[in-house]
Amino acid sequence: MGIIIGLIIVSVALIISLCSLLYILTSKSQKVLNEKKIKEAKNERKKILSDTYREINEQKKSFEENLQFEKNKLEIAKQNIENENNLLIKERAIIIKQQEAIDVKNTDLDKRIKNYSDKREELIKRLEIISNMTSFEAKAELMKNVESKIQYEIVSQIKQAENLAHARAKELSNNIILSAMERFKTDIVNEKTTNLVKLPNDDIKGWIIGKDGRNLKTFEQLAGVEIIVDDTPEVVTISSFNPIRREIATKTLEKLLIDKRIQPIKIEKELKVQEKLVDETILEIGYQVMDELGIHDMDKELVKLVGKLKYRTSYGQNVLLHSVEVAKIASSIASELGLNAKQALRAGLLHDIGKAIDFEKTGSHVFLGVEVARKYGEDEVIINSIEAHHEDVAKESEIAVIVAIADAISASKPGARNNSIEDFIVRMKEIEKIGNSIPGISKTYAFQAGRQIRVIVDPVTTDDKDLAGILETLKNDLKNSVIIPGEITITAIREKREILVFN
Length: 503
Prior knowledge:
Layout: H1 2-131, H2 135-183, E1 194-198, H3 204-209, H4 214-223, E2 226-228, E3 235-239, H5 243-259, H6 264-293, H7 300-308, E4 313-314, E5 317-318, H8 319-336, H9 341-350, H10 365-375, H11 380-388, H12 398-411, H13 420-436, E6 441-447, E7 452-457, H14 467-481, E8 489-494
Helix pairs in contact: 2-8, 4-6, 5-6, 6-7, 8-9, 8-12, 9-11, 9-12, 10-11, 11-12, 13-14
């Protein structure tokens, strides 16, 4: 029992010892752990402090650098201000010195002027005593003598210059005009209002007329010309005072004869084709003239109008050939006189440009020419040359005078002109103008010097019963406004056409 108790006591003691040892070990381990944490915390604190100090130092360094930069800027600005002040002080000193020098010179000059005036007064008084004349009387006498001598010399020189200039001017003007006329010659082209179309045989005339005259009627109505089919063998005549219409109709008929198909639909189609081709030909002719004269800056539409002059005649002259001739003569005269030859060339070419449209629009060719030149931006000198070449307005430049002279030279060649055709064209234009002004008439065509008149009536605004009234109105207007020799026949055509196109 005692042994058991002893064992128990020993066991308890052993357990207590073990617990104590375990507590001691546990305490020591916790202490070590706590010390490690404390050490880590100290290291972290030290690192944070180190980073903070480094950042503070960097900011401090940056601030110091910026502060130093600003100080340097202020120092430089201060230095610049000091330099500018020094310059201003120096400039002010220089100005003061210059002003002082000027004042000294002015004072000296005033003294010299005063001395000169005193000497002059003294000299004048001495001269007056010697000559027994006042200064005013002496001056008048001197001027009288000088004036008399100079006047005689001037009159003599002027007389000699006038005689020389007159002789030289006459010789020079003759040489200029003769030189211009010799260098530039053009053939005279007879004016006409009809074109002849040759036929392979007389049987073709029946094709042209068509059944019940349908082909002939369609051709004349659409082309605005008159086709004369008479007994002349193998020839038909196309008549119209409008040269463009006449040319288109001629080419259309020639093409139809080649194709050997003449019918209303084909006639209408071919007229449109030939109208386009003639338009292209006109433009090509215009550019050929520009190349010939060396003009390369003219508006395309104006070039086209120049080409149209190919089909226009006036007083027996082809207007395009006449215009080119006037341009060359004007350029030659201007060159001889030392003026602008290119401007004279251009003005001479365009002086009759209104004749390219005077058979289509109302107004004189001068008025229409000025209108066209302004529209396409031509120079005022050229516009005045156009406007003044028939003395409608005053000539404002030497170029305008030269163009008028060149026009007269070109027109004055023997046989170059006759007046009858010009009067004829004016009369034909007036007939068509009167017809087109009557309500209900859409187109008017005049043939055979106005003795045959064809009017196309608008089928929408008029009825058949209105035709008699329209013809009566046209007859009265023509009687009151136009003198037409012989019997006059007016034909009114009212045709309504419906066209349906479908696939």
